[in-house]
Design goal:
21% of the residues lie in helices and 35% in strands. It has 231 residues and is an alpha+beta fold. The longest helix has 29 residues. The chain is globular, with a radius of gyration of 24 Å.
Length: 231
């Protein structure tokens, strides 16, 4: 009888453990709440000096809209991001003028960019046409340089999600189309510039496992240790 009870208890622990792991896996994969563009390719001009990706643009769904964080973690020395080009769901272009960009946080001293919107209104060097353009400062003061980051809340269109920013530019020119594009300036001693894009498209950003699942896993481990001691 004792052995039977131990076997049943051990089996329950294993089954619960499988459930907990399954829940954690499901949470990390099915509850993805955004994605990131990793700018690691030069399609025109000079390459930044550091290792790619030079710039990340992460989109995260929130209750109030979509959070966009642009991070220049891969830029170095005097390099800076002069402009960023993004696309939006063609179904939203009729309402694109309703988009609002609300500053959330960012590196101190960086001048706020001017943000423009318009269906296929902006062209990135030899690439296609984009719907959203961030113009950052190019003067020595206030540049969006190496190691800097900025976060904006994008809202204004009902039902807007991060998936609405996963669209290619309209083809126009010898390069692309691309999901997004950026213009890096201040490269090297000759102050060259280069046009970059994310070569692999959007990379999913999974939601961490919920605290309840983690608590269940910790509880199961504790129960198993207690059972082993008694055994």
């Amino acid at each position: 009888m004792i052995k039977a009870r131990k076997a049943i208890w051990s089996g329950k622990l294993r089954a619960a453990g499988v459930v907990a792991l399954g829940l954690g896996f499901w949470s990390a994969n099915a509850l993805a709440t955004g994605f990131v563009y990793r700018f690691d390719n030069v399609f025109s001009g000079a390459a930044p000096a550091g290792h790619s990706p030079w710039v990340d643009a992460a989109f995260k769904d929130t209750a109030n809209g979509v959070l966009l964080t642009v991070d220049n973690g891969g830029l170095s020395a005097n390099e800076f991001l002069g402009s960023l080009y993004l696309n939006i769901n063609p179904a939203d272009t009729a309402k694109i003028q309703n988009l609002t960009f609300t500053f959330q946080n960012g590196t101190s001293g960086v001048t706020a960019p001017t943000i423009q919107t318009g269906e296929d209104a902006f062209k990135a060097d030899g690439d296609g046409k984009y719907d959203i353009l961030f113009n950052f400062a190019t003067a020595n003061s206030g540049r969006f340089g190496a190691g800097d980051s900025v976060t904006y809340l994008i809202s204004g269109i009902p039902g807007l999600t991060s998936a609405d920013f996963q669209y290619l530019s309209t083809p126009a020119g010898g390069h692309g189309p691309f999901d997004a594009a950026g213009h890096v300036q201040g490269i090297g001693c000759s102050d060259d510039s280069g046009w970059i894009d994310p070569s692999v498209g959007p990379v999913p950003v999974p939601e961490p496992a919920p605290g309840a699942v983690m608590a269940l896993a910790v509880g199961l481990l504790g129960a198993r240790r207690l059972w082993l001691r008694r055994k």
